[in-house]
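Researcher: I've got a protein sequence and the SMILES for coenzyme A. Could you write out the 3D structure of the bound complex as structure tokens? I'd like something to compare against our soaking experiments later this week.
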Amino acid sequence: MAIIRHYQESDATSVGKLIADTYSEFNLGFVSPQELGLFLGPFRHAGSPEKPHQEAIAQVIRSALVLVAEDDGEIVGVLRGRKDRLGSLFVRGDHHRQGIGRGLVEQFELEYLQQGATVIRVAATLYAVPFYLAMGYKRSTGVRTGWSFEGHGLQVQPMRKVLGKG
Ligand SMILES: CC(C)(COP(=O)(O)OP(=O)(O)OC[C@H]1O[C@@H](n2cnc3c(N)ncnc32)[C@H](O)[C@@H]1OP(=O)(O)O)[C@@H](O)C(=O)NCCC(=O)NCCS
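Model: Sure. Here is the predicted complex with coenzyme A in place.
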């Protein structure tokens, strides 16, 4: 059973690897191996022992609110966001469909509801659209094509949820 807690800087290496692996596997399948690094940005160096690589990863993870899901001492999920905006969400593939994404999103919504947020927006990956629909989010525009670090061509579905409306 995973627990959800606030991220600490000492989690940066594990979270960096989780993001690099999950993003590559589930969202960047359309990218050629040569171009993958462009789309991963600093996360292409996940697991590197070099300090500048580690600092660049820690820097890009930082956000107003970062939550992690921990199972048996291992980080298996992460959500980054700020008031009104869910920035990114990743759950390790071998832990999908266990309610971890739901737990992270519910905790995020609760914390910002308590701070007076009324709407949460997210640019959902196409992979995650059924998940966000199940969480009560609705499509707010058509699909957009945009940037991921220096890589262009990632398709996202802008979605939104009015808090307190189920
Ligand atoms: C999207 C993601 C975070 C969902 O995490 P998860 O922990 O597997 O989701 P949950 O188990 O909490 O799912 C809650 C509900 O969402 C729906 N859902 C989740 N994944 C789904 C899928 N692949 N297909 C259809 N419905 C899905 C289901 O209704 C599910 O409830 P159920 O399992 O009881 O049927 C995870 O698939 C992931 O990390 N994907 C790759 C990265 C990504 O695309 N992130 C989104 C960035 S915006």
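Model: The beta strands are 3-6, 65-71, 74-82, 85-91, 119-125, 138-139, 144-148, 151-162. Residues 22, 26-27, 88-91, 96-102, 122, 124-125, 127-128, 130-131, 134 surround coenzyme A (CB under 6 Å).
Researcher: Great, I'll pass this along to the crystallography team.
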